[in-house]
């Protein structure tokens, strides 16, 4: 998938910044405390040059060194240094704590919204890019509060305090220095407008790198079997190089518009001060302490400006990252949910499709006028070649996508009339690839659902025949399950997924090629478990191996999104149509094997 770079306008950047500040509202008291401590630190630092100036003009120049006064000045100076250090440490900890809490809240909010999104969104969004937004982009936002906001406020205080101190020392010279402020604002505005597009491009390339890595790791077996390592390295190298080029453009903008320009302005300002005091020396004596203090304050004025300018790149990255996070947070492409005020329950589980037509992209129809009915206790099997529409029927039944045309009802009620809780609790799903999570065997069966006794878990496992291999595990139901259940065989993982489904005791059972990924020997035990599971339930099954659906009450044969044949196994064989051809083909393959 190509990542489109959206260049943020100045107005959009301001809106994003204000929205980010909104997350700080709940930490208002802590922020006030942090700013107050920051003000103390700034005041302590700004008083130091004035003390030294007084020492130079009042004591060093006239060669007067009263011990008690000097001890008091030295003590006061050291006290200011210690106060500044302590305040900086405390305010740094406070800002870090606030920033981490804000990022935590952001991640929870964006993850909460992602969980509501329909599969149509995930069809377009690569997993690596999604992970990048939730992790990398939110981490960049943290730097906004820690490295940018704190520095901006602190150095803003420094700059204001510096001007006040300079006016106190020499109002005329302070006014001359004030002309540099508009110039600095122009440089900041210019930098923001140029760097925005660069950092948006860099952020997009990071997402592409994550997507490439995720794709490679998940498909490593295929890559190695087909010897695609060289091609994947080349593609990854190209994406990595594009990220490098984008990063270099951003760095060049930083190198040109950040410190060099500020340093030039600083040198000009110092030159003005020296020229001013040079002319003053022709008129009368020059106070060396004031000269020292002025140059010191100019350095203290332009150093905060330098820090602010250097933080602008972090600020720009944070705003770009926040824009990407908020776009994800504002996505409203949700899976279909309950509509209407009724709260019906699923009792029998009778399913009926009536003239259902569906398209993923709004232009190409993948299902056309699909109609069938499945009563309680019946099994309806869906067969057909790849792309015939089997999975699309399941996706619609599970409310992953909204209907384009037609109706789907359960017990005579529209599919969308059922609450999410009611619908998910009464519909059990078994996929071709059983997904196991890191945890224990028991936690994978309950999936975190509370209220189940150990006896109920064991009964569900015994019902599907999973208890035998679980009891042979060293820690039984508390045995550790690694990521994706890597230490279990396909058959064992499938039996665990059966137990997971049966624990919920669903009225409707959806089987998506439940035996396709297991060997023929394991298939027999899996098939026995499936037959027990289907008793007294409405079952919709996608079948890859036609031998597994011989006893289905109704078989729907799909071709290019339409039902071309229907009937039971014997009826379809007698018609000698598409089902008959598929059955004979599989029979020959089994004989050959």
From TrEMBL:
Membrane spanning residue stretches: 31-56, 76-95, 144-167, 173-191, 256-279
PROSITE patterns: ABC_TM1F, ABC_TRANSPORTER_1, ABC_TRANSPORTER_2
Coarse class of the protein's main subcellular location: membrane
InterPro entries: AAA+_ATPase (IPR003593), ABC1_TM_dom (IPR011527), ABC1_TM_sf (IPR036640), ABC_transporter-like_ATP-bd (IPR003439), ABC_transporter-like_CS (IPR017871), P-loop_NTPase (IPR027417), Type_1_exporter (IPR039421)
ABC transmembrane type-1 domain span: 32-317
Cellular component annotations (GO), alphabetically ordered: plasma membrane
A GO MF term: ABC-type oligopeptide transporter activity
The ABC transporter domain, residue ranges: 351-585
ATP-binding as UniProt keyword: yes
Membrane topology: Multi-pass membrane protein
A Pfam short name: ABC_membrane
Location(s) in or outside the cell: Cell membrane
Keywords of the record: ATP-binding, Membrane, Nucleotide-binding, Transmembrane, Transmembrane helix, Transport
Recorded superkingdom: Bacteria
Protein name: Multidrug ABC transporter ATP-binding protein
Organism annotation: Alkalicoccobacillus plakortidis
